[in-house]
Amino acid sequence: MSNQIIRDHTRRLLVAKYELERMQCKAISRHKNLPNQIRYEYFLKSSKLPRNSSRTRVRNRCIFTGRPRSVYKLFRFSRIVSRELASKGSLIGINKSCW
Question: What is the pLDDT of residues 14-32, one digit of tens each?
């Protein structure tokens, strides 16, 4: 397993762990009817959360190769791996077309 795959997996775990806390802080800090002091406290609290717990830091990577580009989100593998698997017949109902 490559280092990028492991790093991405740990980020996904952190996102799941801090998701509720991050959403609460974000909602309170954006609420316009609350006093500015409370909003600012929750803004600071959200900024003290780990950076890797942010959803935007998660990168879709191929689970076989670690390739970051052209990854099918539903299957989590790249187009290159999907072509290889289709050629071998490992994907049920999919075959590589040739003419």
Answer: 999 999 999 999 998 988 8
